[in-house]
Amino acid sequence: MKPLNHVGLLEPDFSLWSDMPWAVQLYNVFRSRWCARYWQEAGFKIIPSLKWATEPSFEFSTAGLPASIPLASVQCRTTNNGKANAKFLAGLRHQLEMVKIERLMVYGGQEHPAMFRDLPCKVALLPSWTSRRNQLRKIESTR
After folding, report:
1. Residue 36 above 90 pLDDT?
2. Is residue 18 predicted with pLDDT exceeding 90?
3. Are strands 103-107 and 8-10 parallel, antiparallel or unpaired?
4. Residue 24 three-state SS
5. Residue 2: CB atoms within 10 Å
6. pTM of the model
């Protein structure tokens, strides 16, 4: 099979939540990485995603991620709660420090750009699927 060097995929996001058992958090990281590796062996370029819940998950959630590669992160559930936002950003900063990356894509970050203003890397803020869906609904309703 000829490699598909021009096609890239984001590693799937099997989220981690602070109230999940530790074993489930570990399993979610494992299955994200497993899918990414499978696709990589099929010739796709992979952009890994950062995921974490609480401090104990920091170490295993970044295990195996090489430095200086683009990464993705998802920010879509904590935006209505200042305390949760602060916790998310503290975790994100810690992850960025552990992996030492230069570029980050934040899925769902476009709706809250101020949150990501002072990160120590270049950041691309992408719309969430819900905001994109709402934009398409507005377009459809005007037809």
Report:
1. yes
2. no
3. unpaired
4. helix
5. 5
6. 0.76
